[in-house]
Amino acid sequence: MSGNWTYVCGTAELLPGELKNVWDEVTDTPIVVFNLDGAFYALEDRCSHEDYELSPGTFDPAEGSIECLLHGARFDIKDGRPLCPPAYSPVAKFPVKVEEGGIWTRDDRD
What we know:
40% strand; globular; iron-sulfur; oxidoreductase; Rieske_2Fe-2S; mainly beta
C-alpha cells in the first residue's frame, strides 16, 4: 500500500451492522469503521461533545447512527453530523477504500 492508509481488516471480517476500531499510527488518531448494508464509513473514534470513544456505544444500522455511551449524543455515520444534543459539532469523517479483499482508512486531515 502506498500513502498513509491504515489496514482495518478483511471485508469478510466486518459484516453488515458491525463496526471495528483501528488506530491510525501516522496521525495517532483512533478511527471507527462501520459496515452499513455493505458500504463502509469511517469516523474519528471520539465524541465531539466530550473526549470519549464512540466505538463502545450503540451502532444503529437502521438509522445509520452511533450513540455515545457517555451522554447519549448520536452521530450520522455517513458524514459525522450530530443528530441530537448534547453534541453540536460533527465528528471527523475519513475516507475508506476496499482493495484486494481488505478495508483501508486514513486520517486525511491536514
